[in-house]
Amino acid sequence: MSSLKEESVPRCCASEADEAETPEHDPHFDPIVSLPLVDIHTNEEDEEELVKIRARLYRYDTGDHEWKERGTGDIKLLRHRSNNTVRVVMRRDKTHKVCANHFITPDIRMNVHCGSDKAFNWSVFADYADETCKQELLAIKFGNPQNAELWKAKFAEAQEIVRTKCSLYTQDQSSDDESSITRSEDTDTPEPKIVDRSPEEDGKSENIDLKDGVLLKLKELKVDGEKVE
């Protein structure tokens, strides 16, 4: 038994020594085809982010007459740096597919959805989420009332930016003002013109009037004389 114990000890030590001497095998293979990095353009490079909140988006299906889920993700308000347009953009989680993409106009109304303090709905005349222009009725639900109030406040702020700073709406306002001014000028009654006359011209005009009156009376007398005859 003693000989077996003496033989077992050196074997363990030898295996540990072999493991320490042999380095770890780390195979490395160069790729056959090298793929360069590609910059992906999201069309958001010229825009600044006003707000970004996680939410769930729905759309109303007019065919089935029911609300259908469109996606869950981060909804954003993006303001263009040069022309001051603001649009709503939302992408789905993981796939990053666009599920909302439309411009904000001053006439959009944000309504409380089904009496909830965490959901709103609004109507959009032109939404480009499906790469085609569609009129949509959208609804959104947030995780808590605080996020819902933040969204409503930022949406109203974006509408004010569009109404006061966007060139599309400021030009319309200026043209309306100019047209109202021209209309008021057209409706104004012209003031009567006062012509200065000399006393001689006034006397001449009176003489002319007298002559005209005498001639009319003479004509009447001639007519009456002819009737008597």
Overview of the structural elements:
This protein is of the alpha+beta class. The chain contains four helices and seven strands; from the N terminus they run αβββββββααα. Strand 1 and strand 2 (66-80) form a beta hairpin. The protein is globular and about 75 Å long. The termini are far apart.
Produce a short descriptive summary.
The chain is of the alpha+beta class and about 230 residues long. It is built from 4 helices and 7 strands; from the N terminus they run αβββββββααα.
Topology, element by element:
Elements lengths: L1 H20 L25 E15 L4 E15 L5 E7 L5 E6 L7 E2 L6 E9 L6 E9 L2 H21 L1 H21 L11 H30 L1
Antiparallel strand pairs: 1-2, 1-7, 2-3, 3-4, 5-6, 6-7
* Helix/strand order: HEEEEEEEHHH
The total strand number stands at 7
Mean pLDDT: 78
Radius of gyration: 44 Å
Give the biggest beta sheet.
7 strands, antiparallel
Looking at the structure, what is the overall shape? Answer: globular
Structural class: alpha+beta
Low-pLDDT parts are: 1-7, 222-229
Task: Name the helicity range.
Answer: 40-55%
Strand content: 25-35%
Strand order of the largest sheet: 4-3-2-1-7-6-5
Supply the number of helical segments. 4
**Separation of the first and last Cα atoms:** 183 Å
Defining key terms:
seven-stranded antiparallel β-sheet; 28% strand; 229 residues; 7 strands
